[in-house]
Amino acid sequence: MSTYFPKGLDKIARKWFVVDATGLPVGRLSTVVADVLSGKSKPTWTPFLDMGDHVVVINAAKCVFTGKKSTTKMYRRTTTQPGSMVEVRADIMKKTFPSRIIESAVKGMLPKGPLGRAMYRKLKVYEGAEHQHASQQPEPMTIKL
Q1: Per-residue model confidence as pLDDT tens for the chain (145 residues)
Q2: CA spacing 20 to 30 A to 91: which of 13, 34, 77, 101?
Q3: What is the phi-psi region of residue 21: left when phi exceeds 0, alpha when psi lies from -120 to 50, beta otherwise?
Q4: Within a domain: residue 45?
C-alpha cells in the first residue's frame, strides 16, 4: 500500500469556511481554526505543504474567556526599542481590538516560518457579523463545545 503524495500545489482544492465566534471560548475556537488553516482535517494532509482552507471568523467581539483569563491574561507588544513594551489586559484588548485576540491565538498555533505565514494569510477575522467574502460562498462551520 502506497502513501498519498500531492503532485503539485495547483491541484489543491481550497474551500472557504465561516465560523461564528459568539459564545465560544477563544482557545477552543483557535485550535479548530488552526487545524483547518493547516489542512490537518483533510486526508491529503502533508506536514510540509500548505494544504489548508480559508477561514472567515465573524463576531470576534462576542468570544469568551474561561476562568479568570479576562483579568489575568496579558497581551504584550514591543517596537524593539528599549522600554517600549506595552502590556494590555485581555478584557481591555477585547473592548479595543477584539479581532487581534483570535488572530494572535491562531498565529501561535501555526508553524513558524514561511509555511506558517502562508497559512496565516488565509485567516480573516471580523468584529461584527458583516464580512466581505460572500462572493466566495463560504460554508458555515459549527464548533462543538
Answers
A1: 777 777 766 677 899 999 999 999 999 999 999 999 999 988 888 888 888 999 999 999 999 999 999 999 999 999 999 999 999 999 999 999 999 999 999 999 999 999 999 999 999 999 999 999 999 999 999 998 7
A2: 34
A3: alpha
A4: yes
CATH number for the domain spanning 59: value is 3.90.1180.10
Instruction: Give residue 127's identity as a one-letter amino acid code.
Output: E
The number of angstroms, rounded, from the C-alpha of 43 to the middle of its chain's C-alpha atoms is: 21
- For 42, the domain range is 14-66+96-140
- Rounded CA gap, 133 and 121, in Å? 14
65 alpha carbon, distance to own chain's centre: 16
Distance CA 84, CA 111 (A): 27
